[in-house]
Amino acid sequence: MKDKTKKTSGPARLLIGDADTCVDIEYASGFHAVDPIVFFLHGRRRVLVVPDMEATRAQREAHRCVVYTPRALGVQRNQLRSTSSWAAALLAREKMARVSVAPTFPLATARALERKGVRVDVVDPLFPDRAIKTADEIRNIAGAQRAAVEAMRAATEMIRRAKIAGDRRLMLDRKPLTSERVRACIDETLIRLRCICELTIVAGGRQSADPHERGSGPLRAQDPIVIDIFPRHLDHGYWGDITRTLVKGAPSAELTKMYRAVKRAQHEALQRLKPGVVASGIHAGVVKRFVDLGFATGVIDGKHVGFFHGTGHGVGMEIHEAPNLGLRPTRLRAGQVVTVEPGLYYPDIGGVRIEDTVAVTPTGWKYLATCEKGMLI
Amino acid sequence: MKDKTKKTSGPARLLIGDADTCVDIEYASGFHAVDPIVFFLHGRRRVLVVPDMEATRAQREAHRCVVYTPRALGVQRNQLRSTSSWAAALLAREKMARVSVAPTFPLATARALERKGVRVDVVDPLFPDRAIKTADEIRNIAGAQRAAVEAMRAATEMIRRAKIAGDRRLMLDRKPLTSERVRACIDETLIRLRCICELTIVAGGRQSADPHERGSGPLRAQDPIVIDIFPRHLDHGYWGDITRTLVKGAPSAELTKMYRAVKRAQHEALQRLKPGVVASGIHAGVVKRFVDLGFATGVIDGKHVGFFHGTGHGVGMEIHEAPNLGLRPTRLRAGQVVTVEPGLYYPDIGGVRIEDTVAVTPTGWKYLATCEKGMLI
Q1: Burial of A94 (C-beta count, 10 Å sphere; 0-12/13-18/19+)
Q2: CATH number of B13-130
Q3: Min CA distance, B207 vs chain A (Å)?
């Protein structure tokens, strides 16, 4: 993975973590850290501190970085597994008495550095440019998104082929069609395309009223089936994200009305996307559309109903990253990649969500991959 | 997933993060957090603060926890996306002026709490019992390990079926057998078993001299092929970990000697495993065995050679967790699950590593799954 930071000025930045806990390290160094490491960036100087066993790989993958091992920095033997000690030794070597860190910087390390007289400033976000994707990054996200679409089509085809039994259960190849079977088909399609999705959602009926419920058991005709696929591409680590809601057989008038409202809200939100637009305004538009169409949001019998999540989120090296299309009044910029995913959820009926991942372009937006939006199959 | 904490006394503990960045939350609450959340544990009281859209799922999955949304805690609208504000509101509600946190607790939140007069103590580890697995947890790890063994066998079979071309390249079905093809076979086997491995290693020849190099391109006869499979089970999130080193065709005398040394070192390390034994002693035994057999460790031409990683690591809800079989003099305890994975690496020859994941039992240890250890195929 290439280093994508362009700026070389500003205060020294210090990062600690592995590839999962501190995505900025891979973003800014190009190195995928299996175990926690230390990364330091000041002007043009980029330094990685990695365990002995990672030194050769780090030199090869992060070719713009100086690579140290803790031993080379003089870290004492009994401190060799303490990344706080690595950071302290590195800052002493760099003669650096002040560093900027992310809000999630580990508290114990900050305190260890402060005890040595280092001033630790929290900066949020530490890499604001990460929200603006390069052409290569957009290509990577589009690759993951195309895999998501292919998996969605495979899932749709399974449901299309199913027959409806007397009790409304869907049957395929003489066995009940379950959330688990559809999910297995999705996951196998994804892995063939070098992608994985850990928490694929295939939630039918009332289960779908809970936006993050993964779903289990037999699927039924006339019920909404929410399928949410958000794969990460194994070759480069970028994510895609798509949701469709399907119904086999004739849905109720209520469910049809919900579906139309969600589809319309998504269409309107997409039409508003362009650089300079305030993210919270797009979200407010969706909220208002639902209210205007008679879909109330609130808490009933202790359960959240209506539309109670954000309209979308940034997608990139993390599945949820900046910018958020919710309550914050940030302005969109060209090069950002976001989902647009309004939804409506009522425990007695189930849920409807339609989600696409799109790039903000200089003049508007574009799909990173297209996929049919019909509910009936 | 069940809540596995048994102790109910001690200081109040505060955790912030999602399922990837703060594994302790799922361990202690049973709730798998897709986005960052707040978890508080004091005596028998367990509280989760989750976004609106997660409230219903949290109530269902974390049935021993009280579940709040930020709104219910009175968090102001412009702070609804700030987990620091959630934590501050929760501690005010709980009338708690002092909390214990993990070393990786986010610095920005700690400072926000300190500004409100809360004392924040770092405790390492915050959940020491997590290293001692329950019978259910060992069953989960064994499930992931069996999947890893099945994938290893599928990969071995591919290499076994390959023919050797004139330039030592392995050929299968008239096409070169590459790291990528073997990895695809492994990954597809895993996903059928509801497991994923993001960074499966299939590294041949000189590539294998770098322990975390994933490997690419054609595989060759007489070269070592290091295959390291560490899957996570999608149903419960526990990991397995196995490595084998294979050679197609006759290896050099040097490579054979390396293989025997690694196999012997692993055997001896396993024989030493039992409760009460000092982890660093096991590691020192492996280091000494290699030295006695003439395999030097050090830095040659800027490259680490010999045996330059730990002998093993704990496995559970994380692929690398406590206890570490390395430099630290911690004593092993029954119920711990560890890898035992000595290796030797020389740039001109390549690498040899043999790894199994085993449970420490009251009287010794046991494999969580068994797999052949022959090098020649």
Answers
A1: middle
A2: 3.40.350.10
A3: 10
